[in-house]
Amino acid sequence: MSTTSIPDPSTRYRRTAQRGINSEMISWMFMRASGLLLVILVFGHLFVNLWLGQGVQAIDFAFVGGKWSSPFWQVWDLLMLWLGLIHGGNGVRTIINDYARSDRLRLVLKGLLYFAVIVTIILGTLVIFTFDACPAGAEPSLLPSFCEG
């Protein structure tokens, strides 16, 4: 019967044994900072849209159109989108690293994850900045009340 010794866990974290950038530490720090910022952004979003507003029944196309006509709310929602997707993607990346057994499977899963996060960030950003609540040539009865004639 073979006996193996478990390495001292404190040796893993000594800076003398490690050279260069510790990407996992940066990832860990990002998760804490982005999580805190996301809590502020999400609760601010809910507070303004649901409590100060007229509740969930008032959220419709016109509400979103009016909100996204302001650069402040575009940036607010963009920060929520970007931070939420990168934070979630980083968490899933950690799960893939922990549970994917083979290097090939890990590579494929992380490639799919990165692709999905990047595509969603690009599409979401385009929607936020190109959204037009008052498109030219649209039926006037279908447009929100704030659109001019």
From TrEMBL:
<protein>
    <submittedName>
        <fullName>Succinate dehydrogenase</fullName>
    </submittedName>
</protein>
<keyword id="KW-0408">Iron</keyword>
<dbReference type="GO" id="GO:0046872">
    <property type="term" value="F:metal ion binding"/>
</dbReference>
<keyword id="KW-1133">Transmembrane helix</keyword>
<dbReference type="Pfam" id="PF01127">
    <property type="entry name" value="Sdh_cyt"/>
</dbReference>
<keyword id="KW-0479">Metal-binding</keyword>
<keyword id="KW-0349">Heme</keyword>
<dbReference type="InterPro" id="IPR034804">
    <property type="entry name" value="SQR/QFR_C/D"/>
</dbReference>
<feature type="transmembrane region" description="Helical">
    <location>
        <begin position="29"/>
        <end position="52"/>
    </location>
</feature>
<dbReference type="GO" id="GO:0016020">
    <property type="term" value="C:membrane"/>
</dbReference>
<dbReference type="InterPro" id="IPR000701">
    <property type="entry name" value="SuccDH_FuR_B_TM-su"/>
</dbReference>
<keyword id="KW-0472">Membrane</keyword>
<feature type="transmembrane region" description="Helical">
    <location>
        <begin position="72"/>
        <end position="92"/>
    </location>
</feature>
<keyword id="KW-0812">Transmembrane</keyword>
<feature type="transmembrane region" description="Helical">
    <location>
        <begin position="112"/>
        <end position="131"/>
    </location>
</feature>
